[in-house]
Amino acid sequence: MALEVYETKGRIDYRKGSFDPPCNAVNGVFLIHPLEINNAKFVFSDPKMDRLIEMFAKTFREKGEVGDFVRAILRKNSLKIVGLIDARSGKARCQVALILIPFLPHDYHDPAKKRVIRLYILAATKLAKFLGAGYVGLGAFNSVVTANGKWLDLQNVLATTSGAAGTAASLFAGSLRGARNIGIIAKKSTLVVVGATGGVGLPTTMMLAPKFKQVILVARKEGPLVNLGRALINEAGLKEDQVIATLDTKAALKHADVSILATSVAHAKELGLSANSFKSGSLVVDAGRPKNLEREVVQKGEFLAIDGGVYELKNGEIDPSAQLILQMGGDKLIYGCLAETILCCLQGKTVSQSIGARTSTDLVKAVSKGFKSKKIKLAKLRMFDEPVSLAEVNRIRLIRLAKAFEKLQLPAIQSIPLGLKPA
Question: What is the C-alpha to C-alpha distance for residues 205 and 304, in angstroms, rounded to an integer?
Fold first, then answer.
């Protein structure tokens, strides 16, 4: 049964309400934006507008005149609820409303638009507080443009989460599950994390790296890479020869048994990856929203590709509008960052978490434990919002077995010195 909106104030519809029996949960909001032009059609109720945007999306990219046309229409529909989620756990119950921020992915990488995007995010948060929300979560690039939520948290409007811990928790568990399914033994294998120093990449790396024989860290700047490499050695207990830091994505991926793509590119083409970029029989985990991998690359490749950061909301209801906008391919499926927002609401949190440059492994573990207690489960292996078939898993497993005894000619990696003295 669809949720009903029964209260309207200003430009925003909000199902505020009270719950019986009373509980310590709070209602929340989750700020989203279209991941591409075609995704923008789901915020409209006009079939003519849907068809128009769909037609444009087949022909034009975001940066063109059509992108500007879509942005203008989105602004007219901004600061309003475009979907509702009702979550329950025992006596606790909360509602999380999806609020539209009217920008496309490329806008978030444009320094000239940073201030206006932040103002929209702040306006949405203030309006949500006025209507009774107690927590705000940041979806996709809304986290990036607010410095992983730090800027919004400093405005002191509502408790905030970037959702980094929720996404990292799913990447940790999902990567190990996917690796086991195709016969990868972590302690004998190499892990590569692209975007290792980002809000999601960093906690994921700190959690996963000790499980592997070797880890290769990839990012765009040397300084943060060196800091992360030192942290893995000094805090996580890895040996110096187990950690490699590099700016060379393509060379690193050729060494990977498990690759995690956790970049914040606006479009997969920006990474320039092809089916030949990955080792045959390897696992590739795409943590990006928008995705870091293109469908045609996966279809041509000899590797298993899975989505990172997908959960199943066992005790709850996602209304049809929210399902269309989230585009997860299931009526109970949610992003990791949204899952963390729902968890904070169910727990009645009043303080921010997963904020700033570094999310701790202790928080990731606490969030993972919270998911289990609230019956927010890691989804089965998926890619492009569809289940990964057993046939595909077996195909990659057989490829891996066939390649096991081959001597591979791997490219040399231009590594960055970590500046550590020999032990």
Answer: 20
